[in-house]
Specification:
Blueprint lengths: L2 H7 L1 H41 L35 H5 L14 H20 L3 H23 L4 H15 L7 H26 L6 H14 L4 H22 L11 H26 L3
Helix pairs in contact: 1-2, 2-4, 2-5, 4-5, 5-6, 5-10, 6-7, 6-8, 7-8, 8-10, 9-10
């Protein structure tokens, strides 16, 4: 019996394996969220120095694999047993084993989110091509959400591969037919691009970043142009509700920008799991159906 046949015949083993994979990937996503913006900043500094004919700045070599994971406080390397997703955080009681510096809740939260959403995808789609692509979709959106919250950046290193992965999957009509996916990518980008320039012409301010255009284009590439109205509506509603809450409850300055990427990502995840039901509800409420 092949490995995949064994997983299919033993549901609990299949679900456990996917959840464990999600937790492990979640641990790696923490590295991506932390390091990718720093790697981009180093690249920008090198490019600026080159344009000005200045010596390249002395920088620590930084990649997703180097240097090895370590405590940001005492610089002690993190041993393998201290890097088990969620479990190590609980065993260490949320503190570094050497200097007792507090470890942020972000780390287990990302791991748990990745594991839980991976399990949800396994239950929803089963062992299929839809599951494989859904897992990639989920993991990239988690990374983009964390980075946008921290830096208000949506890196091309993630948004563009996500867009191309959606188009590649729909070559085989995993989610929608290819024409719908291509039109979705174009319409997703151009819709927010148009809103951006209209808002800028009226107010003289930039209402969102170009990364938001690319993320919505990626969602259009995955789910087709038909999904875009609902995704925009969901993300806008949640974003407005949270933004108003921050202003009223926390007294946040209404001029402080709020990243829109996490709301687009959340809407994309909702559509991944509940797209058909949400579409039916949306069409009935609008009177289209």
């Amino acid at each position: 019996m092949t490995f995949m046949a064994t997983l299919t015949a033993t549901p609990w083993l299949f679900f456990t394996a996917v959840t464990a994979l999600g937790l492990i990937v979640g641990s790696f996503l923490n590295v991506v969220i932390l390091r990718l913006p720093r790697m981009m900043e180093q690249e920008w500094q090198r490019d600026c120095a080159e344009l000005q004919d200045l010596p390249a700045p002395e920088q620590e070599t930084l990649s997703l694999s180097r240097p090895a994971s370590h405590c940001p406080g005492c610089k002690s390397p993190i041993k393998p047993w201290q890097n088990i997703p969620v479990v190590s955080y609980l065993v260490l009681r949320g503190r570094c084993a050497h200097c007792q510096r507090s470890i942020g809740l972000r780390y287990p939260a990302v791991e748990l989110a990745s594991g839980a959403l991976s399990l949800a995808a396994a239950v929803t789609f089963g062992p299929s091509a839809s599951l494989l692509t859904a897992l990639l979709f989920i993991w990239v959106l988690i990374a983009l959400t964390g980075i946008d919250i921290d830096t208000q950046l949506l890196p091309d290193n993630l948004t563009l591969p996500l867009l191309w992965l959606g188009l590649a999957a729909n070559l085989f009509e995993v989610w929608v037919d290819l024409p719908s996916a291509v039109i979705g990518a174009m319409a997703g980008y151009l819709s927010l691009w148009s809103v951006y320039w209209l808002f800028k012409l009226v107010t003289g301010k930039e209402g969102m970043g170009f990364g938001d255009f690319k993320l919505l284009a990626a969602l259009g590439a995955w789910f087709g142009w038909q999904a875009l109205p609902l995704i925009i509506l969901l993300s806008s509603f949640v974003g407005a509700a949270i933004g108003i809450t921050f202003v009223l409850v926390r007294g946040q300055d209404r001029n402080v920008p709020i990243p829109f990427g996490p709301y687009l990502a959340g809407a994309g995840l909702l559509y991944l799991f509940y797209g058909e039901s949400l579409n039916t509800l949306y069409l009935s409420l609008t009177g289209i159906q």
